[in-house]
Amino acid sequence: MYSLGIDIGSSSVKVSLLDIESGSCPCSAAFPKTEAPISAPHKGWAEQNPESWWEYVCQGIRELGRSADLSKVRSIGITYQMHGLVTVGEDGRPLRDSIIWCDSRAVGIGEEAFETLGRERCLSHLLNSPGNFTASKLAWVKRNEPDIYSKVRKVMLPGDYIAYKLSGEVSTTRTGLSEQILWDFRENRPADFVADFFGFDRSLFPQTVPSIGEQCRTTAAVQALLGIPEGTPICYRAGDQPNNAFSLNVLEPGEIAATGGTSGVVYGVTDEPRYDNASRVNTFLHVNDSPEAHRYGVLLCINGTGIMNSWIHHNVTPELDYAEMNALAATAPAGSDGLLVLPFGNGAERVLGNRTAGAAFSGLDLVRHTRPHVLRAAQEGIAFSFKYGIDIMRDLGLCPKIIRAGRANMFLSPMFRETLATLCDASIELYDTDGALGAARGGALGAGFYSSPQEAFGSLSVLEEVRPQAAMRGVLEDSFGKWKELLIKTL
Global pTM? Predict the structure, then answer.
């Protein structure tokens, strides 16, 4: 028996099959084969066509079907890029491209709501500023595209849309509402006061279903199209960062997960509803939250991390693959001989108070610095941005001693891993898992094929442990101090 995991990313869509009994992955696929396009009609905008996500899902599942018998799929789990806005009309089709997670057009609208509703009310009830989250993006459409808004019948997150395409049913989760800033943590119910403030008709928002547990079932049309049996239950849905934590078995208070894809994320679990007064880090419901045992996820998200590394790769070392680039970066000394890089070149940053610092190089010596220095300084700058945000999380009581991560993206770089572990004085545990496999495990758990998370993650093991490097600590701490001074001047 298989569980199918679907991961709707902004760079690609990945699908994986999990053998429920053994916990192994017989096959996986990702589409498109090159990076998915993101439309940016104006500075700070970022949009994708939801129909393209569905087409990538179909292409991926068909590829799986060439290696495995999809009639054996017994459950489905979905994970997706957080905070995206999908608006559909009466016919269930998107009315416009999705305004995705890294789009910053609604920052001003969120700040206006924060001040008008009141900082204390927002932080105590929402644990966040409305900021640049989904509700504010919908308010932008209402304000700037009234013709489109008048046709909106349902509002969905990216994962909700894919679940709808598979089942024909429109739903969301409580965790999804919290990431849209439409969940009242104090009242433990939808935040109607936010919807009322923006003038949203409450009928726009779907019914809620459990994050882990049966949500809906696939249709006969999906069986004909993809070979997945009609009636297969969709039993798990989560945003990419809560799901990354789930994939790494980060479910209990004090546990920490990290990822370094296009954006960089550190996600910690707590049983107390905590918030940052400046909303630089954000608190949401975690996937295993329940009335009996509350679980909250504190999320540090930095837009300009992996995308900085990708930019360096394409523009400085296009002839090398990433492994070769990482090896070349490691030939430069720790601290990069004074070369500093701010990696914030991907729009407004929540960790910087929704300001756009931009990417920058500082201290470049045209005689002394070489390509390895540039490569290392970029990766150190990304690690410094993680450290900057983790220091904010420490103020909320989350003090990581162990950081769990998948061996992927930025965490494929030994130099980056050692730099981050040393700066944070925390060991990094690397696992062979990803978002699609995590979603597949969640689907199997929600369908009852596993009796507990412990059973679901029984086959997950540590591939490698990275410890802080005492010999590097002094140089890196000095470099981080100078980097922080540069950031403050830039802001």
Answer: 0.89
